[in-house]
Description:
InterPro entries: Actinin_actin-bd_CS (IPR001589), CH_dom (IPR001715), CH_dom_sf (IPR036872). This protein has helices spanning 24-28, 36-54, 64-67, 72-82, 95-111. By secondary structure, it is mainly α. The protein has five helices and no strands. Helix 4 (72-82) runs parallel beside helix 5 (95-111).
Amino acid sequence: MEPEEFGDVGFTNVGLKARSPEGHAARAMHIKGDEYIWVEIQEKTFKNWVNEQIRPLGMSITNLATDFSDGLRLIALIEVLQKRKLKKIRKPLNQHQCLENVQTALQAMASDNIKLVNIGEYLFPCFS
């Protein structure tokens, strides 16, 4: 069986079937610095999915850490998924207001019993 090529990326699907960096198959991967390739693939996939969800609102993200930092795009994503409006500060002027927006989004997820797992702490450094 020939390994599947992934376009211009320059790697094959051999070893990329692991579900998480903690999985036994992922630990055996010695591709581009162990778990980094897995994280890059997951991040790109998630960004593409988020962009598909918020594109009708005229929004997009390119960097998870910075684009979600004021909470507005995160709230927009939650509003699209939950099909309801959330209270937000439309033009946050300081870190406190940004954190309030992020907290609003996280509380909306918690109210739907959504649990965040395997989220890199670099996304929300203020909470670590």
